[in-house]
Specification:
alpha+beta
Length: 92
């Protein structure tokens, strides 16, 4: 289970729960294709917040939070890390 929220200040403006890596891959692919939009949101003070809950046989693992200013560089870096771990196969 993964949760991605776009925040501004102390408030989540938009959030997405993605069950399965295919859904995460689609979200990252969309964000990478919308460079002007992502950068303009980052310039307006939006941030990206990601949480990952590893689930194995019904037992939840630890949470890995990620909170950064929204930018295309952060989206691309997230894609690179996920690809290097073999989690997704997004082509840029």
């Amino acid at each position: 289970m993964n949760y991605c929220a776009f925040t501004r200040g102390d408030y989540a403006v938009f959030g997405v729960y993605a069950l399965g890596l295919e859904n995460v891959e689609q979200l990252l692919k969309f964000l990478a294709s919308e460079k002007p939009l992502v950068n303009s949101l980052g310039a307006a003070g939006y941030r990206i917040f990601l949480e990952s809950y590893p689930v194995v046989k019904g037992v939840r693992g630890y949470v890995r939070p990620f909170d950064e200013s929204l930018s295309i560089n952060i989206v691309e870096r997230t894609i690179d890390v996920a690809k290097s771990l073999g989690l997704i196969n997004v082509k840029r």
